[in-house]
Amino acid sequence: MAPSNDPADFSKFRSVEPINTDPNLAPASTWDKLKQNFGMFVEVSKNRPLSETLCLKEALIFGIPGSFFCSMAAFLFSTNRRRVFQAAILSLPVLTMGRFTQCRMSKHHERKATILVSKMVQAKMLTDGTAKQAEFEKLFKKSQVELVDFEHQLDEIIAKQQTGGK
Fold first, then answer.
1. 104 vs 84, 117, 145, CA distance in Å?
2. What is the pTM (predicted TM-score) of this model?
3. Contact, 87 vs 73, CB < 8 A?
4. How many CB atoms lie within 10 A of CB 74?
5. What is the maximal distance between C-alpha atoms in the chain?
6. Which residue ranges does UniProt annotate as crossing the membrane (predicted)?
7. pLDDT, tens digit, for every residue of 121-156?
8. Looking at residue 40, what DSSP letter applies?
């Protein structure tokens, strides 16, 4: 049975907009730059379930208990009910949006690193055995120190996640 090209079949897949890597397509005005910087919040407004929105469920799981603990801390420092309520109401959006922003930025950096690695592999494949191979090797040796440091940092993160340590 051949796969169909029905759009309903593809509705289950989450679409991700490509990263703008072309300098000719850079935002022209300050307003365009501002819209591009806050483009990660556009996905929240697409009227999807929370479980399908990248990082939002995690941010709420972090923000709601965090708000509870902030209100409990406010109660311990001051038994004023108004202060406790204010601490709970103010800490919920601050903690939630902070975690959401941090998570989305880390996903953005992971995505950029993936694109960079794929471009490096493509350049390596295209330059092997050609006159440009020496130029690629020279360029790669420049960035090799940064890549080694980056690899060590990734290894530490993976080890911490696997052992559950801090």
1. 30, 20, 27
2. 0.56
3. yes
4. 20
5. 75
6. 59-78
7. 787 787 777 777 777 777 777 666 666 677 777 677
8. G
Query: How far is CA 134 from each of CA 96, 121, 124, 140, 141, rounded to the nearest angstrom?
Result: 49, 15, 11, 10, 11
For tokens 């890597």, name the residue.
21
Per-residue pLDDT reduced to its tens digit, 65-99: 999 999 999 999 988 899 999 999 999 999 999 99
- 20-26: list long-range contacts, CB under 8 Å, 24+ apart: 21/115
Element housing 31 (H / E): helix 30-37
| Contact predicate 43/54, CB 8 Å | yes
- Is-contact 92 67, C-beta < 8 A? yes
Tokens of 81: 């009910």
Burial of 140 (0-12, 13-18, 19+ CB in 10 A): middle
